Amino acid sequence: MMEAAPMDWAIWSAPVHATLMFVIRDGQILLIEKKRGLGAGKINGPGGKIDPGESPLECALRETEEELRIRVLEPRKLGELHFSMSDFPDILCHVYRAEDFTGTPEETEEAVPLWVPIEEIPYERMWSDDRFWLPLLLMEQTFLGRFVFQGEELVWREVTEGVTIPD
Ligand SMILES: Nc1ncnc2c1[nH]c(=O)n2[C@H]1C[C@H](O)[C@@H](COP(=O)(O)OP(=O)(O)OP(=O)(O)O)O1
């Protein structure tokens, strides 16, 4: 991984804002196999792009409901991910964790639910940045991750733990 950032993050801003939601319960994490959209075929948490006029939290709840038909209870925002992409507009992603929900996760047009023991998270089937910040979310630590992609290849990364995360 290169040392100097290939861009000035101080003036970086993202045209696309998105969310991710991770439910952790009984030593397992609720993931999805994404059926369409950006990252189709990969394993990820439920989530998606924020609609106009929607807050990040509203988006995370809506996307989780649309993709898995569950209503997450008392989510906490633990992280932010800044993605600089070569072939897609840059993304700022708000990341939430929760321990409880109502309903039963079910397959939808967008996703297949997948309960996975936290020791067996399939990072090889996920975005290549995930292994650098998901362990922090599992430890209930806050984090700010900055990542530069060339296509699907992660070419630069920086993850800061224990930061104050804005709502
Ligand atoms: N690099 C990386 N790591 C982890 N997660 C992500 C990325 N890049 C990403 O875009 N993501 C996440 C962020 C979002 O949760 C999704 C992308 O949103 P998308 O599914 O395209 O948004 P929707 O609003 O559901 O899509 P459509 O309705 O337009 O199909 O991936």
TrEMBL record:
Function in brief: Oxidized purine nucleoside triphosphate hydrolase which is a prominent sanitizer of the oxidized nucleotide pool. Catalyzes the hydrolysis of 2-oxo-dATP (2-hydroxy-dATP) into 2-oxo-dAMP. Also has a significant hydrolase activity toward 2-oxo-ATP, 8-oxo-dGTP and 8-oxo-dATP. Through the hydrolysis of oxidized purine nucleoside triphosphates, prevents their incorporation into DNA and the subsequent transversions A:T to C:G and G:C to T:A. Also catalyzes the hydrolysis of methylated purine nucleoside triphosphate preventing their integration into DNA.
Catalyses which reaction(s): N(6)-methyl-ATP + H2O = N(6)-methyl-AMP + diphosphate + H(+); 2-oxo-dATP + H2O = 2-oxo-dAMP + diphosphate + H(+); O(6)-methyl-dGTP + H2O = O(6)-methyl-dGMP + diphosphate + H(+); N(6)-methyl-dATP + H2O = N(6)-methyl-dAMP + diphosphate + H(+)
Protein name according to UniProt: Oxidized purine nucleoside triphosphate hydrolase
Molecular function in Gene Ontology: 8-oxo-7,8-dihydroguanosine triphosphate pyrophosphatase activity; dATP diphosphatase activity; metal ion binding
InterPro entries noted in UniProt: 8ODP, NUDIX_hydrolase-like_dom_sf, NUDIX_hydrolase_CS, NUDIX_hydrolase_dom
Top class in the EC scheme: hydrolase
Family: Belongs to the Nudix hydrolase family.
GO cellular component terms listed in the entry, alphabetical order: cytoplasm
Cofactor: Mg(2+)
Subunit structure comment from the entry: Monomer.
Keyword Secreted: no
Keywords: Hydrolase, Magnesium, Metal-binding
E.C. number: 3.6.1.56
Pfam families (alphabetical): NUDIX (PF00293)
One GO biological process term: DNA protection
